[in-house]
Amino acid sequence: MPKVEIRSESCKSCGYCVKFCPKQVLAIGDKVNSKGYEYAKVAKPEACIGCKMCGVICPDAAIEVYK
Amino acid sequence: MEKIYARTKGIRPDVVSGFCPGCMHSTVIKLIGEVLEEMNIIDKTVAVLGIGCCGLKMEYMSYDNITSPHGRACAVATGIKRSNPDSLVYTYQGDGDFASIGLAESVSAANRGENISVIFINNGIYGMTGGQLAPTTLLGMKASTAPKGRIAEEHGYPMHMCEILNQLTAPCYLERTSCNTPQNTLKTRKAIKKAFQNQLDGKGFSMVEVVTNCPTNWGLDPLKSLEFLNEKMLTEYPLGVIRDNG
Ligand code: SF4
Ligand code: SF4
Ligand code: SF4
């Protein structure tokens, strides 16, 4: 099953990955990183299809995808 | 399990970019890194950075770079490329740098068909210096130096750099792209790769104009800045290949 990993320290909470994931796998979480950003989290891991769209759109290279 | 999307070696592994949240400067720098890694030329690449937010790239990227005097990146890149023809030399410039302060150097390098690649970031405003009007600012768009918005009679019209350079004989490749969707981000990646390949093949001047956002100086959050980009910026700056002699 495909898997996404979010590097929480690199995330700036822009919300692009949440917007563009076709399967609503991602969400902005309620925990903050050391810079104070509420980083993205994997809310529905089982729905991921490994399409990489989240990784492509993330400005800050905070997402890595496995398949 | 195989990693199918990895953070590129073209940016430093443990550095968080200095750009604001949602700023597509970060996206483009990531894409450049991915392309250089894919083409296996990170070690022979020299980036020439413009002044402004572009300079934040310095701490983030993982290979050789030099910052030029404001606007003069194409002239500096010309010198580096001519004296080190085996290097891949590209400039990374914003609209204030490339299209205003450095207009003479930019147009002259394009007119010479200089064998360099230009990555031109058009977000319609001066970023780091405080949101001043840029040559690319849209009519009616507010800037710190145009508090009532850009007025044609006072400030002139938005400048379309791809189309302006398309009047010249020498340039090889001019394309305008964006990073507003994953699909367009992948198109930007492809365009950057083409610009670099053209240089390796000795084909002369290539420019990719990336229409991006400046959430901070537009006064919008990242998602709202995407809407402004889609509705306003891309209406004024339509995407596509303007010239391809590659
Ligand atoms: S790989 Fe595709 S499906 Fe999986 S989280 Fe990313 S965008 Fe969503
Ligand atoms: S796109 Fe990247 S920076 Fe933006 S919220 Fe998602 S993981 Fe964070
Ligand atoms: S000021 Fe604008 S262009 Fe500069 S980093 Fe912030 S959002 Fe990006």
Break the fold down into its secondary structure elements and pairings:
The complex is a heterodimer of chains A (67) and B (246).
Chain A (H helix, E strand, L loop, with lengths): L2 E4 L9 H5 L5 E7 L5 E5 L10 H5 L5 E4 L1
Antiparallel strand pairs in A: 1-4, 2-3
Chain B lengths: L2 E3 L18 H15 L6 E5 L15 E3 L5 H11 L4 E7 H7 L1 H10 L4 E6 L29 H4 L5 H5 L7 E6 L3 H19 L5 E6 L3 H4 L3 H15 L3 E5 L2
Parallel strand pairs in B: 2-3, 2-4, 4-5, 5-7, 6-7
Antiparallel strand pairs in B: 6-8
Helix pairs in contact in B: 1-7, 3-4
The complex binds iron/sulfur cluster (3 copies).
Description of the molecule:
The complex is a heterodimer of chains A (67) and B (246). With 67 residues, chain A is an alpha+beta fold. Chain A contains two helices and four strands; from the N terminus they run βαββαβ. Chain A has helices at residues 16-20, 53-57, and strands at residues 3-6, 26-32, 38-42, 63-66. In chain A, a hairpin with a 5-residue loop joins strand 2 (26-32) and strand 3. Chain A is globular, with a radius of gyration of 11 Å. The mean pLDDT of chain A is 98. Chain B has helices at residues 24-38, 73-83, 95-101, 103-112, 152-155, 161-165, 182-200, 215-218, 222-236, and strands at residues 3-5, 45-49, 65-67, 88-94, 117-122, 173-178, 206-211, 240-244. In chain B, strands 3-2-4-5-7-6-8 form a seven-stranded mixed sheet, with helices on both faces. In chain B, helix 1 crosses helix 7 and helix 3 (95-101) crosses helix 4 (103-112). Chain B starts with a strand and ends with a strand. At the A-B interface, helix 1, helix 2 and strand 4 of A face strand 1, helix 1, helix 7 and helix 9 of B. Strand 4 of chain A pairs antiparallel with strand 1 (3-5) of chain B. Residues 19-20, 23, 25, 53, 123, 127-128, 214-217 of chain B line the site of one iron/sulfur cluster.
Placed side by side, the strands forming the largest sheet of chain A appear as: 1-4
Spans where pLDDT lies below 50 across 5 or more residues of chain B: none
Our Rg estimate of chain A from Cα atoms comes to 11 Å
N-to-C span of chain A = 6 Å
Order of helices and strands of chain A: EHEEHE
The termini of chain B sit apart by: 38 Å
Second rung of CATH, namely the architecture of chain B: 3-Layer(aba) Sandwich
Structural class of chain B: alpha/beta
Main-sheet strand order of chain B equals 3-2-4-5-7-6-8
How many strands appear in the DSSP assignment of chain B?
Answer: 8
Radius of gyration of chain B, in Å, reads: 17 Å
Percent strand of chain A? 25-35%
